[in-house]
Amino acid sequence: MTTLVDAKRVSTSDLDALYRKRWMIEVDFRSIKSEIGMDILRSKSPEMARKEVAVHLLAYNLIRSLMVRAAVLAHVLPRALSFKATLQLWHAFSQQWRWHLGEATESVVTAMLRAISTRIIPHRPDRIEPHAVKRRPTTHAYLTVPRDQARAAILEARKSLKVVP
What we know:
The chain is mainly α. It contains five helices and no strands.
C-alpha cells in the first residue's frame, strides 16, 4: 500500500525503490526480534514492556553504530556488513576488554572493528524470501498452572512409581 497514487509523477522504479526500503525495515525488525532477543517480552506491565522495547532498540542502535564505524574503516556501506556477525564479534571481543585496560583497550576496539569490516554480505537486490516459520515447534506442553503446583504434581507422581534396585 502506498500514498504515491499519481502514475504521471511516480515511476515504477520509484515504487520499486520504496518497496526495497520497506523490505530493509522488515529485515531490521527481524534482527531486533531474533538476534537481540525481543521476540518474547518478559515484562508483565505495559510500562515495563515499553522500557524493555526501548532497551532492545538501544542495543540495536549500538550494534548499528559499531557497523558504521567498521564500514568507515573498510570504505563500504554499513548495510553491506552482517548484523549477526557484528553482534557475535561484539560478544567475543567484550570478553577481551575485561583483561585490557588503558591503551590496550583501544587496540582491542580497533581489532574488533577490523574484524567486523571483513564480514561483508553479498548484494542481493532481488532476493525473495518466504514469510514462513521453518523450525518446528517444541513438543513441550504449556505450563497452565503455577510453577509450585506443577512441581508438587511431579513430586507426587514420582512417589507412586516403584523403584527397581
